[in-house]
Design brief:
single chain; alpha+beta; Dna Ligase, domain 1; D-amino Acid Aminotransferase, Chain A, domain 1; 3 domains
Length: about 325
Amino acid sequence: MIKPILVITDKSDVHADYVTMELRKIGGDIVRMNTADMANNSDFFVEKLGQQEPWKLKFHFKDSDKTVTSDSFDTIWYRKPEEVEPDQNIAEEHAQTFVKEEYSWFLRSFYNLYSHKRWINPFWNLRHASQKLPNLELAAKLGLKVPKTLITNNPEIAREFGEHCNWNLLVKTFHFSGFVVNKTEAWHCFAKRINKEQFLQFAETINFAPTFLQQYIDKSIELRVTIIGEEVFTAAIHSQEIEKTQSDWRAIDSYQIKHTVYDLPEDIAQKLLAFNRHYSLAFSTFDVILTPEGEYFFLECNPNGQWYWIEDLTKMPMAKAMANLLMQN
């Protein structure tokens, strides 16, 4: 009997929805752990009763009426889990924080306790592969072109870097993407191209936090490369056709931007596959630039990135590829 795939994600995750449909076509199935709902939607225990006894595990998910035990799954797909939402009867903010933190540390312990299972991708590998600076270093060692880069909290060093790049700069963040201001407003942070005049407007604030600057690379198109197992799916994102997306294609709804299937050169594909092997990743997404001169520049890797919108717009069979990967022994 084929064991179901344990999918760790959120109830709004359409990627898991479509991959589940593909899995069922080939005889597979899932048990879905929507982490945000765990406090209200699950009963569970993890126990060790004797010195030589193995750990025993049991999760029961009320919405699907499915149960997971230590032996009922071999493969875990770590998708997009969200922070646990405390029981609605807990009114005090400090108590809610306590519950969230206890669940967070419990889940990390669970991930480590069952690290011998097959993971796509392993939790800690994702953390290592999400670091921007080591990724730029690895990409360069693999022979991929990378932009000139500076991270500093020193305005004078930043100014010298601007001069070095002829004031053709991009400012971006390590991780922060925005925050909710109130119930009707949110503030989002995207990469932005800046010149000398714009740099001087914020130069005094550089010492407040690490400032991430790069040489701006002129683009012909942007490429979103998704690797699933050994399959490489590349979409051209025609971001330069819309003014708002010329610096960062995430600035508007992706469905408003033209996407086409792209034939990535084999040597670039092989270098990205080598990147995945370095971190023991079975899946990842990459952002790559093709310049007007025909050069390819590596920007970054998101080892747990979103991809279904690419399939939806280009019809590349990515959900099917993920289902096949999950079903491999």
